[in-house]
Amino acid sequence: MTPSTIEIVPTPDDQRIARLAAAAIVLTVAEAAIPLPLPGVKPGLANIVTLIVLARWGWRDAVWVALLRVFAGSLLLGQLFAPGFFLSLAGSLASLATLGLAMHLPRRWFGPVSLSVFAAFAHIGGQLVLARLWLVPHDGVFYLVPVFALAATVFGLVNGLVAAKLMQGRVSG
Amino acid sequence: MKARLAEWIVLLRPGDWLVLAGALALCVLSALALWRGGAPDKAVVRAGGKVFAEVGLARAQVVEVPGPLGVTRIEVEPGRARVASDPGPRQYCVRQGWLTRSGAVAICAPNQVSLSLAGGAADYDSLNY
């Protein structure tokens, strides 16, 4: 075999991000097997990983992990470039932007649960805006807002608690 | 069980409770704002095919409508209306009871009287192009 002229040497940073993204992807794939009554309502377990990455390594790494998760996760599920993928991407971008702002809240008062709930609401917000503009150009989509909001509250709380539990006893930051 | 729960609750910081309360409030408010589409605001009473009266559903009152068989009494209460009595033989419209949703109709065909609720985001009966 001809040796490649271009050699990409992954830095320890790359390897760490890849490991964390892999964990997030596993959760995405596992979650796809859970039957749920409504399209669009999902626990979003992969966000636990995003929250931990955000707390321990900062926003830049969280963006990397979350977006790699969206792309690779949908590739594995055969959803790449399907409508669900774009909804997922819009939701992730909105929630990453929100996390970027919310992470500056005082840590003493606002823990992972707050961040998780904010991110969950931003996620449904981003999805709904894209759905309204592109997939269902009718105000009827907003009829489901209360259901999505309740799901975001519940799953935001659960994911936030799990993330907090996993980080318990470690120095965050 | 209680100890288990306490283990999780310590993970919540004061601001987290605030955020959760806000999130729940948002759920309730959005449900109240978006799911009241069927709430009617007036009752339309027709006799012999013509509008006999349009009554707001804000306060209770009774409307008496004369028809070929006699008088049909329509009772209105805040948010709902019904045909209280009708001289027709089969009493279908009376048995329908209280109408509460926009677009609901009670028809007393023999006496040529109908009661329908309107307003709110009424659903369409039919659409054509």
TrEMBL record, chain B:
Taxonomically, the superkingdom here is Bacteria
**Pfam families for this protein:** NusG_II
Question: What Gene3D superfamilies does the record point to?
Answer: N-utilization substance G protein NusG, insert domain (2.60.320.10)
What InterPro entries does this protein's entry cite? NusG_2_sf
Query: What's the name of the protein?
Result: NusG domain-containing protein
UniProt organism field? Aromatoleum toluolicum
